[in-house]
Design a protein that fits this description.
The complex is a heterotrimer of chains A (501), B (116) and C (155).
Chain A lengths: L5 H16 L4 H29 L2 E4 L10 E4 L1 H24 L6 H20 L3 H19 L5 H32 L4 H8 L8 H15 L8 H7 L2 H27 L4 H21 L6 H22 L1 H33 L10 H4 L1 H15 L6 H15 L2 H26 L14 H15 L7 H17 L19
Helix pairs in contact in A: 1-2, 1-4, 2-3, 2-4, 3-4, 3-10, 3-13, 3-18, 4-5, 4-10, 5-6, 5-10, 6-8, 6-9, 8-10, 9-10, 9-12, 10-12, 10-13, 10-19, 11-12, 11-17, 12-13, 12-16, 12-17, 13-15, 13-16, 13-18, 13-19, 15-17, 15-18, 16-17
Chain B lengths: L1 H19 L3 H22 L16 H7 L4 H31 L13
Chain C lengths: L6 H23 L8 H19 L1 H7 L2 H21 L25 H24 L1 E6 L2 E6 L4
Antiparallel strand pairs in C: 1-2
Classes of the chains: A mainly alpha (501), B mainly alpha (116), C mainly alpha (155).
């Protein structure tokens, strides 16, 4: 089945066709991107059906076999991420067709967005460590430019901070890859796993530290989180939505899973480090969110808090921990993108996102308030919406593995999350406005994507019905638990290639 | 062994430039120097003492080639890495020009409008 | 920047420019036999055009190589590379080398690599030229509220 490269080809092709064809007519560029994303979503569903029924699929680019070729692989974890990513981006692009009317230079926005999507999809399908790095860089650089898109003073400053820290992350990852190449002599992930398993673990700590620090910086756990509140609060609304819900997960969370679980095997120290960083992120994100005036900045701190939950899920391990982390990813992706699109709609109609200036949104924009409610209750974990199931599973996993302190802190932070969202609802949405200004409801082009995403928030729990869970989620968790890249290694001769100085 | 110390020295000089300097142009130059250090590390990882260039012509003998040739794979990786650093440099330069227009200075201590 | 440099610089760069272009084209075309290829050949070609930009001023160079045509070549180069990759499906795999590979160590021994190198060379040359020319068109005008960035010339 040769379809696995098709999403990347579609996105790269459309990124270069848009400046050619649509320079005169900028309206059509937005609709063209929606069509391309829909095509990619259909293809990823076909890939998903094939993979979930028949197991992982490996192919090589150019027909060059092992050990020379560049390997591509789709297994159930990648297929799940592909489907969720393309689904959410289709609706975000449908939203941005209407939202970006207030910005100039929309051709460059669409072209850069397509490049970012090409990078994110490319990370999901490749099994070669250099290939992952190249797509990672394509996505990162496009996101730096998109954050600075509005060209106001604060946006440029936020993008500067984000760029310098992203550059340091890329440098750390490059150092880690140079160490891996020096130790093993190959770039193919199964061969690397096989060669690294023969070395004593004391050789590996420096490499593990470099690689993980680079990926954790992009995932925004606590000591490395300082770029996130500025970047996500100052970007335009569709860019904030995709950065906060999908980019951090795919570029950070997915690659941490791949590197720490499948490549290095089950190492106890990495998991403990992830639990500690996750707990600190949860608490810090929750506490800092109380003092924020800018609503988007509050949502950005909430993202840091929820990413801490995912990190705890991986750190605890076992079937329940991994299941909780994956379901938390799905639920948070839908609800956080819905929240950022809501704030974008409010900003589109009133022009500000400061919670001191906005009041009484419920009376003028009732539908937007309804969708905001679903998003906020979805994140804080009110049953039966989105993240309730995943938080329950993570707390059960923590209790079962003996981490009672972690379970207690998870419950505390869940209450904290509900606290700041309720405070936001009372101060901004359900007030009586002092001045009688006429604000109208958001236009239909903004409402339809928000309605669909809130519908999906309502039904995230459907993944736990046993028949769906056996086909989709059990296989995904099986990849995280049992699969190591070592098992794909084809050994003709039994020597690992070590380079001498 | 001395080569690896040189790589570490260049990396820390660049890192000092990013962390300790206040002018934004000096930060960009520091970022460039960090990029040079990483590329140097890649090339040094693939070096063979007394080596020859990994180019096959009609006159090379195969045994001598396999024993003495320098590894060509890190050279391809370094090409890609140089292009990525060039993209960073181009974007940071454009960002610096726009920042000068908005804040009227190149000093990053005066660009503090985002707080909290 | 608008008027260019002195007469000596203009005279010498007039002589040197064709050799730079020739060297760049040789790097691109012989990429599969000698060290070189798309990236380095494209960078050398862009260097030649930037030499013209510095020596003669942008008014003259934008008549020779206008940025609109540079953007067109940019997109066409990238699309050409993607087409070569997708056409590899006729051989069975993505990015497969499906053309006739002639005699070893001669010019026509690369298959699709020659066309890929040409596409990348065109793209890198025009992309670097557009990038440097846009950065060089920035002018700062003093107004009452502070400096304002103005792009002089066409976009």
């Amino acid at each position: 089945m040769n379809l696995i490269v098709m999403p990347v080809v579609i996105y790269l092709g459309s990124a270069f066709v848009i400046p050619l064809l649509f320079r005169k007519n900028e309206e059509l560029a937005g609709k063209f991107t929606c069509i391309c994303t829909f095509l990619a979503f259909v293809i990823s569903i076909l890939i998903g059906i094939n993979v979930f029924s028949q197991g992982r699929f490996i192919s090589f680019a150019g027909g060059w076999e092992n050990p020379v070729g560049i390997a591509l692989m789709v297994d159930p974890l990648s297929a799940l991420f592909l489907i969720v990513c393309n689904f959410i981006t289709f609706f975000i692009l449908l939203y941005s067709d209407t939202y970006m009317k207030k910005y100039t230079g929309r051709i460059y926005f669409n072209s850069l967005f397509m490049l970012m999507l090409a990078g994110m999809n490319g990370v999901l399908i490749s099994m070669d460590i250099w290939n992952i790095f190249v797509f990672f860089e394509i996505a990162s650089i496009s996101s730096f430019i998109l954050v600075a898109f509005g060209l106001k003073a604060e946006e440029l400053e936020a993008s500067l901070k984000y760029t310098i820290m992203g550059f340091l992350a890329s440098t750390m990852i490059l150092f880690g890859m140079a160490m891996i190449y020096g130790l093993t002599g190959t770039l193919n992930l199964p061969d690397i796993a096989f060669a690294l398993s023969k070395l004593p673990p004391s050789h590996l700590w420096f490499t593990v530290a470099l690689l993980l620090s680079g990926y954790i910086l992009k995932m925004a756990l606590v000591p490395f989180h300082t770029w996130l509140p500025d970047a996500h609060s100052m970007a335009p609304a569709p860019v904030s939505a995709i950065l906060s819900s999908l980019f951090i997960k795919i570029i950070g969370f997915y690659l941490v899973i791949r590197v720490s679980l499948n490549l290095f095997g089950d190492i106890y120290q990495i998991k403990t480090a992830l639990i500690v960083l996750g707990v600190v992120s949860m608490i810090l994100g929750g506490i800092m969110a109380y003092g924020q005036q800018n609503i988007k900045r509050l949502f950005a701190y909430s993202t840091i808090s929820q990413i801490g939950y995912c990190a705890i899920g991986i750190g605890i391990g076992g079937y329940l921990g991994y299941l909780g982390a994956i379901m938390h990813f799905i639920g948070h992706a839908f609800s956080k993108s819905l929240l950022f699109l809501d704030i974008g709609a409010i900003e589109y109609m009133t022009g500000t996102t400061d919670s001191n200036d906005l009041e009484g949104i419920n009376e003028q924009m009732p539908f937007t308030t309804l969708f905001s409610n679903m998003g906020m209750f979805g994140i804080s974990g009110i049953p039966p919406l989105g993240n309730f199931w995943s938080k329950l599973i993570i707390i059960l996993a923590a209790v079962k593995a003996g981490y009672f302190g972690v379970a207690l802190l998870s419950v505390f932070v869940a209450v904290l999350t509900l606290g700041y969202f309720l405070k936001l609802l009372r101060n901004v949405y359900y007030n009586k406005p002092k001045t009688k200004e006429e604000k109208k409801e958001a236009p239909l082009g903004l409402l339809v994507p928000m309605a669909t995403l809130s519908f999906m928030v309502l039904f995230t729990g459907v993944f736990l019905i046993p028949s769906i869970r056996k086909t989709v989620l059990d296989k995904t968790v099986g990849v995280m638990e049992n699969f190591s890249y070592k098992s794909l290694h084809i050994s003709e001769t039994d020597e690992s290639i070590l380079l001498e100085e | 062994m001395v080569i690896y110390l040189l790589v570490a020295l260049i990396f820390f000089i660049g890192l000092y430039g990013i962390v300790a300097k206040k002018n934004i142009i000096k930060i960009i130059i520091g970022a460039n120097i960090v990029g040079y250090a990483v590329n140097l590390l890649f090339i040094v990882m693939g070096y063979q003492w007394g080596g020859m260039a990994p180019v096959l012509t009609e006159k090379t003998k195969p045994d001598e080639f396999y024993k003495l040739a320098v590894d060509p794979l890190p050279q391809a990786l370094v090409l890609t890495s140089i292009v990525i650093d060039l993209a960073f440099l181009a974007f940071l330069s454009a960002l610096a020009i726009r920042l000068y227009e908005k804040y009227e200075t190149f000093d990053i201590e005066k660009m503090r409008r985002l707080k909290g | 920047m608008d008027k260019g440099m002195s007469e000596i610089v203009k005279g010498i760069s007039k002589i040197v420019f064709p050799f730079i272009i020739l060297f760049g084209i040789a790097l691109v075309l012989y990429g599969h036999i000698n060290p070189g290829g798309g990236f380095s050949g494209g960078a050398v070609l862009a260097g030649g055009f930037v030499l013209l930009l510095l020596a003669f001023g942008k008014d003259y160079v934008f008549k020779v190589f206008p940025p609109k045509i540079a953007r067109l070549i940019d997109s066409l180069g990238a699309l050409g590379f993607l087409c070569i990759a997708v056409l590899g499906f006729t051989g069975g795999h993505f990015f497969y080398n499906f053309l006739n590979k002639g005699r070893l160590f001669h010019l026509w021994s690369g298959g699709t690599m020659v066309f890929a190198n040409i596409a990348i060379g065109m793209k890198i040359c025009s992309a670097l030229f557009v990038g440097i020319s846009v950065l060089s068109m920035a002018r700062l005008e003093k107004k009452e509220n502070g400096p304002i960035y103005r792009q002089s010339g066409e976009e």
